[in-house]
Amino acid sequence: MLIPSKIQLDPDTHRPNPTERTAMLFTRIAHIDAFDDPKQYEKTDEAGIFKNVSDGYFMVALEYRNETDEDTQYPLEDVLDTYLAHIEVFEAATPEDPKGQVDVFAASKIERAQSLVALVGKRAYNRTTESGGVVLEIDDSVGEAKL
Q1: What is the pTM assigned to this prediction?
Q2: Is the C or the N end of the chain the one with fewer CB within 10 Å?
Q3: Distance separating alpha carbons of residues 128 and 104, to the nearest angstrom
Q4: What is the pLDDT of residue 134?
């Protein structure tokens, strides 16, 4: 677990303290050169989604950025868990946003990849419930100016 020392962890959940809200903003669907190789990837009918020929997984390259100055896996780890996806390639392309990162997300079903694409223009963050649990929140009230 990659948690910078500046972020206080809750002693019970071992997650960032609720007062230390870390949010990430998905800014765009990116394109990586590898997707242009028909021996490795098939283009699907869905914008930005490619099928890996060798394993059948559906891939999408997304650019995102943390909205805090901290570099932490949260809420990315929870996004991956929620959407049943994993990162196939870290830092797959140069981001348009100097604070951004482009990763290739992989999902076993196209519907899961479509759900990942639907995150573009949205903010993901963790919220602590009254019972002390942590839930992933997706906020779609992000203004175009912030993208």
Answers
A1: 0.79
A2: N
A3: 28
A4: 85
Q: Tell me if residue 115 falls in helix, strand or coil.
A: helix
- On the 0-12 / 13-18 / 19+ scale of CB atoms within 10 A, 61 is buried
Burial of 119 (0-12, 13-18, 19+ CB in 10 A): buried
Looking at the 3D structure of the chain, how many domains does it have?
A: 1
Interatomic CA distance for residues 51 and 30, integer angstroms: 15
Confirm whether 89 is domain-assigned.
Answer: yes
Which of 87, 82, 63 lies closest to 125, judged by CA?
Answer: 82
- Residues of the domain holding 66: 23-141
Residue 79 backbone phi and psi in degrees, to 5: -60, -45
Question: For residue 59, which amino acid is it?
Answer: M
